[in-house]
């Protein structure tokens, strides 16, 4: 017993940032074993620490921790053991020096941008993006005197043409939500590096199981962990990966004082989700290709477009295959009109109408009236989010059941 009459448990960091211990582990092992700290109880599943604060043996320990002279937790806005375990596991999967978990994907995107820009800076962003990511670029940053340019991210030359002397950040998704635009990571990240620009990649559609942008030179990788990382549609979560220096010196002053902190419970759920990420991401990608192949003839016959990086008809199919291990569970297709898109959705019997993605359940939505409803009509047109566009997240159900459901729903929509 300590002098405070409470038994203290020494956490043993069995893995995690101990590079020597984890260096040779392959990705599947990192996903299951990375970021495990065990208490003296030897629990197999990582512990969930629901605590906002911490107690100390004596006053000097508090002073030392706040001064940064001693390791240890001080307050859960700044550190929490469960959250730290999640951050270690994500960093290992990403191949990043450091990671900080966030309350949601949008908390991650907001922090990743705001922590590094000042009035007078310029940000170049991809035109095709999640609606709220576009809001950050189109509305929030300009409000604080940050100039922004939005470009066609699949046009390699457009990136260079958009650079100004004050360009600080490149911000893009690949594949992008919901039009599945694919950005040439190597080209764009090298261009950023050559001009002293920080590249920030929103990797939510792929997850580190399918694409690791840092291998292609990305500086910062940001996540909605709500998607494939959780994988079962339970919690909101986000993460930012970068170099130790960038995380500590650029992100942390912003994060510790503004508090986009993830709850320990949500961190624990995502941490457990990561153990099956590899299996789910690859299986769902495989099923998404099978479903895309099934749908393509029907959609093209009706004059519609398929937007699926896993199919040869995608303009950047080869690039997607070169920079991704598999092309992911999400694709989109155009059925011509909103009426037809709604008729198809309403006829679904198995696949849910839902705007979430990355879930083990198959989900479908109409981006123009949901995820991108907050944008102006011109904005949607410029992004190619058409009135007939449908987006699907392919889950883990038997693909034959999914095809039967789509088959009857297509017939109901007269396709
Ligand atoms: C969902 C999503 C986000 C936002 O994440 P939340 O966890 O919902 O806040 C950001 N970017 C992309 C590409 C997304 O799909």
Ligand types: pyridoxal-5'-phosphate
Arithmetic mean pLDDT: 94
Strand order of the largest sheet: 3-9-8-7-6-4-5
Number of strands: 14
| Major pleated sheet | 7 strands, mixed
Helix content: 25-40%
What is the H/E order? EHHEHHEHEHEHEHEEEHHHEHEHEEHEH
Point out poorly predicted stretches: none
Radius of gyration from the CA trace? Answer: 22 Å
Shape estimate = globular
The termini sit apart by: 72 Å
**DSSP strand (E) fraction?**
5-15%
Helix run count: 15
Instruction: Find the structural class using helix and strand composition.
Output: alpha/beta
Oligomeric state of the chains?
single chain
Note down, in words, how this protein is organized.
It is a single chain. The chain is built from 15 helices and 14 strands. It is an alpha/beta fold. It has a 7-stranded mixed sheet, with helices on both faces. Helix 13 crosses helix 15 (399-412). The longest helix is centred in the C-terminal third of the chain and has 25 residues, at 277-301. It starts with 11 loop residues before the first strand and ends with a helix. Bound molecules: pyridoxal-5'-phosphate (PLP). Residues 104-106, 109, 130, 133, 173, 177, 202, 204-205, 224, 226-227, 236, 238, 357 line the site of pyridoxal-5'-phosphate. Pyridoxal-5'-phosphate (PLP) binds at residues 104-106, 109, 130, 133, 173, 177, 202, 204-205, 224, 226-227, 236, 238, 357.
């Amino acid at each position: 017993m300590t002098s405070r009459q409470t038994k203290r448990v020494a956490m043993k960091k069995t893995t995690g940032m101990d590079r020597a211990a984890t260096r040779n582990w392959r990705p599947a092992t990192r996903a299951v074993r990375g970021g495990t700290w065990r208490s003296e109880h030897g629990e197999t599943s990582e512990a969930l620490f629901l605590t906002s604060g911490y107690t100390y043996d004596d006053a000097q320990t508090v002073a030392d921790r706040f001064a940064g002279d001693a390791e240890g937790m001080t307050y859960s806005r700044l550190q929490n053991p469960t959250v730290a375990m999640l951050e270690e596991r994500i960093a290992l999967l990403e191949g990043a020096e450091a990671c900080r978990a966030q309350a949601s994907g949008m908390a991650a995107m907001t922090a990743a941008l705001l922590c590094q820009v000042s009035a007078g800076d310029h940000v170049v962003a991809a035109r095709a993006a999640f609606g709220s990511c576009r809001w950050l670029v189109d509305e929030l940053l300009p409000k604080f005197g940050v100039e922004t340019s939005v470009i066609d991210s699949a046009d390699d030359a457009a990136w260079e043409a958009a650079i100004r002397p004050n360009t600080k950040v490149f911000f893009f998704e690949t594949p992008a939500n919901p039009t599945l635009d694919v950005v040439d990571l190597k080209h764009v990240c090298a261009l950023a590096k050559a001009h002293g620009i920080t590249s920030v990649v929103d990797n939510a559609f792929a997850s580190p199981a399918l694409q690791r942008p840092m291998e292609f030179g990305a500086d910062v990788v940001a996540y909605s962990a709500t998607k494939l990382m959780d994988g079962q549609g339970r919690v909101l979560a986000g993460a930012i990966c970068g170099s130790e220096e960038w995380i500590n010196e650029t992100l942390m002053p912003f994060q510790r004082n503004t508090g986009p902190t993830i709850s320990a419970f949500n961190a624990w759920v995502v941490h457990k989700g990561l153990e099956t990420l590899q299996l789910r991401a690859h299986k769902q990608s495989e099923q998404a290709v099978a479903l895309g192949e099934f749908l393509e003839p029907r959609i093209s016959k009706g004059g519609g477009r398929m937007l699926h990086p896993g199919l040869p008809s995608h303009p950047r199919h080869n690039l997607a295959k070169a920079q991704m291990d598999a092309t992911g569970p999400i694709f989109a297709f155009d059925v011509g009109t909103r009426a037809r898109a709604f008729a198809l959705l309403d006829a679904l019997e198995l696949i849910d109408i839902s705007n979430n993605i990355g879930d083990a359940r198959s989900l479908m939505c109409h981006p123009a009236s949901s995820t991108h409803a907050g944008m102006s009509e011109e904005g949607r047109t410029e992004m190619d989010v058409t009135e007939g566009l449908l987006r699907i997240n392919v889950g883990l159900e038997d693909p034959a059941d999914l095809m039967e459901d789509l088959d009857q729903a297509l017939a109901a929509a007269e396709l």
